[in-house]
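Problem 12. The chain below contains 124 residues. Write out its predicted structure in token notation.
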Amino acid sequence: QVQLVESGGGLVQASGSLRLSCAASGRTFRRYAMGWFRQAPGKEREFVAAISWSGVSTYYADSMKGRFTISRDNAKSTLYLQMNSLKPEDTAVYYCAATENSYSDIGRLPMDYWGKGTLVTVSS
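Solution.
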């Protein structure tokens, strides 16, 4: 069992930056690949970024490449998402999630654990 709690969401102007955090507890954090997802009102949840259990390997959805950076600090059991050059279309509830599978499966296969989300609102 893994518990995930996101934080860092809020209101930010377009072209601004925001850093999200996801604190994990329960089963060994280091052994889980992690990912960020987001969901805007009336839309399906979409994949944002993924990171391997070691933190060495990452990949991103095309629309996030060059703007978002996923990272993790296993000593602190915390996942991060640095978001730069934010756009109004980035407005959504952002969720962190964990899986026992490979980071490369994130976005294609179901995740095992989910946080409750943190709201990011980008104003124009």
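Discussion. The mean pLDDT is 94. Students who got a different answer should revisit the alignment rule from Section 12.3.
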